[in-house]
Design a protein that fits this description.
Blueprint (H helix, E strand, L loop, with lengths): L2 H10 L10 H9 L9 E5 L4 H15 L3 E4 L11 E3 L2 E2 L2 H15 L6 H14 L5 E5 L16 E4 L7 H4 L3 H8 L9 E3 L4 H14 L3 E3 L4 E7 L2 E6 L8 E5 L7 H17 L7 H10 L7 E6 L15 E6 L5 H14 L5 E5 L7 H11 L2 E4 L10 H5 L10 E3 L3 H11 L5 E5 L2 H12 L5
Helix pairs in contact: 1-4, 3-9, 3-10, 4-5, 7-8, 11-12
Length: 445
């Protein structure tokens, strides 16, 4: 297959719905000589923050000179975004070549889209002479297709409500699924905040003899003034380790918590043959970029080009793109808008999947918005604008507008945006992918 054929074949697998379980993955990997055994991994699970932690680890480790693979999901516009080594995404030729091999091994057997891309990641990483790879779960952990590895370190960023149809309808059940990535004797870094979820992680670690390094117990952060912060190890092998006066490039106070998890992972990796000096950690934190997550974009209305420096104020339009789609993510977005952004009016373009908790997310962002435009990203799971409107409190309906086409929704927001206004686009990474492509072009060449 060439790349377009491989992409079309992969897209055809989306007709096979989400299927949790490891049998198909293990069966395939057995037939290709277990490529995942040739790679050292950090395995990352959690409800929110997985991507930020993974990207922070990649940026710092690769900045020091290690050759690091990264596998994340979902993508914004191209499936190739899911697979990269350091700063380089997998090429179209390499993607097509490995995809062809997978298809030939499978024969008439069908696997899911996520199982296919995970298999492709393992095969690519195994042949690429990596030092290390960062592997992000897709859904949950226990039955996720990535959960066939025994990593150097396991990470659970946090636990909140999302994907209830697959993971359970209470936090303890969801925590149990996330805790499924914990392996015997493998250290765990956890950022869970509530004792009922931390308790699940703690019990699983005890059962498997895995050392737990819990945020707030084994390590912590404190504000150092003027936006800087300090990291300190408090217990176990982290005791006495300190990194003062740190700064993050990514905005949002919650990013400090995500970065602190990454620093705990780096401390544990240093004891396993991957040391990184403090200077490279500081530089790496300032260099982290994660497209579509609190991504601030300024465009010139006339040229449609991105503006990075001084320009005529009246001719600019300001966007903030964020993939917040569940209650915890939207709460973080709302807090960040209140604490870190100044604007005259807040204009919101919102699209979401119908299976998300719209009754909690839409009122939260709707209360802040001066105007909210409901739209519909592509995909059979996408909610219709009228369905989104139904979740907005009736007293806020006067500020809402329904524009199904995403590009027209953006142009509608731009027409009413004046100097000092901020257009926030959120609700779904599918929406962010479409919007980012419309505004900036493809992320991957």
């Amino acid at each position: 297959m060439n790349y377009l054929e491989a992409e079309a074949y992969l897209n055809s697998l989306q007709f096979h719905k989400i299927k949790l379980g490891l049998e198909a993955m293990r069966s395939f990997l057995d037939r290709v000589q277990r490529p995942e055994l040739k790679v050292k991994f950090v395995h990352v699970a959690g409800t929110n923050g997985k991507g930020s932690v993974s990207m922070t680890l990649l940026t710092i480790l690769s900045g020091h000179g290690y050759r690091v693979g990264l596998y994340t999901s979902p993508h914004l516009s191209s499936v190739r975004e899911r697979l990269r080594i350091n700063d380089t995404y997998i090429s179209r030729e390499k993607f097509a070549g490995i995809a062809t091999r997978i298809r030939e091994v499978l024969g008439e057997e069908k696997i899911t889209y996520f199982e296919f891309t995970t298999a492709l990641a393992f095969l690519w990483f195994a042949e690429s002479n990596l030092d290390l790879a960062i592997l992000e779960t897709g859904l949950g952990g226990r039955l996720d297709a990535t959960n066939v590895v025994v990593p150097l370190v396991s990470v659970i960023t946090n636990v909140s409500m999302d994907h209830e149809a697959y993971l359970g309808h209470d936090l303890e059940s969801i925590a149990f699924e996330k805790a499924g990535i914990i392996k015997a004797g493998v250290p765990v870094v956890s950022g869970t905040e509530e004792e009922r979820t931390t308790g699940v992680i703690r019990r699983r670690c005890r059962e498997l003899g895995a050392d737990l390094h819990q945020y707030g117990e084994a390590f912590a952060t404190e504000a150092a003034g003027d936006g800087a912060w300090n990291w300190q190890g408090l217990a176990g092998p982290l005791t006495g380790r300190e990194l003062p006066g740190l700064r993050c490039s990514m905005r949002g106070s919650y990013q400090i918590a995500n970065a602190s998890l990454s620093l705990a992972v780096l401390a544990l990796l240093a004891d396993r043959g991957f040391p990184v000096p403090p200077a490279d950690i500081r530089a790496g934190l300032l260099g982290v970029r994660w497209p579509g997550r609190l991504e601030y974009v300024v465009l010139d209305r006339t040229t449609r080009e991105q503006v990075f420096g001084p320009a005529e104020v009246g001719n600019l339009v300001h966007y903030l793109l964020d993939g917040a789609h569940n209650p915890a993510g939207v709460d973080s977005l709302v807090s960040t808008l209140k604490e870190e952004y100044a604007y005259r009016r807040l204009l919101v373009v919102w699209g979401a999947m119908i299976d998300k908790d719209l009754a909690k997310t839409i009122p939260a962002i709707g209360a802040m918005a001066d105007r909210i435009i409901f739209t519909r990203p592509a995909g059979e799971r996408a909610a219709e604008p009228v369905q989104l409107l139904a979740c907005l409190p009736a007293e806020l309906h006067s500020k809402a507008e329904l524009v199904a086409d995403v590009s027209q929704a953006l142009l509608t927001a731009e027409r009413v945006a004046g100097p000092g206004d901020l257009i926030v686009v959120a609700g779904s990474l599918y929406l962010i992918g479409a919007v980012r492509t419309f505004l900036l072009g493809e992320l991957v060449e």
